[in-house]
């Protein structure tokens, strides 16, 4: 036995002293665990009202010069693209590292580009318009 057990500090002993005998709390015993989820074995499929999100690597943004301005320009261009084509703007989601790690560019992707197995690398703010066109192109 180690020093904790000799001193009486094991978890079982503390629970016994507190009156806990291994039974759930009485107010929770009769309630189901989750009441809002249906009892189904198949997943629920949902269609969003907005275009799929555009992913942008947060690590790349922090590594390049003017990453914050590039992010703002990309968000603004997505808003303009939505105004021209109608509908809502695609959300810009900052992710962790996407694993490509270019030297002086930011990795971006969308459902359309990922479906084709492509990523869009953006180096400067003046490339953002062309990048959004590539990101939102469904073909």
Automatic annotation (TrEMBL):
Residues 1-10 have a biased composition (Basic and acidic residues). It comes from the Bacteria. Residues 1-46 are annotated as: Disordered. CDD domains: TRX_Fd_family (cd02980). This is (2Fe-2S) ferredoxin domain-containing protein. It comes from Rhodopseudomonas palustris (strain HaA2).
């Amino acid at each position: 036995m180690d020093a904790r057990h000799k001193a009486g500090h094991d978890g079982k002993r503390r629970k016994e002293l507190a009156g806990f005998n291994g039974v759930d709390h009485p107010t929770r015993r009769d309630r189901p665990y989750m009441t809002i989820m249906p009892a189904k074995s198949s997943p629920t499929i949902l269609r969003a009202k907005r275009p799929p999100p555009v992913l942008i690597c947060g690590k790349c943004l922090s590594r390049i010069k003017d990453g914050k301005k590039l992010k703002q320009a990309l968000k603004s261009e997505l808003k303009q693209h939505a105004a021209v084509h109608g509908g809502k703007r695609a959300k810009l989601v900052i992710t962790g590292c996407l694993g490509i790690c270019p030297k002086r560019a930011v990795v971006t992707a969308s459902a359309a580009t990922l479906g084709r197995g492509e990523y869009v690398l953006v180096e400067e703010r003046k490339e953002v318009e062309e990048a959004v066109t590539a990101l939102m192109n469904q073909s």
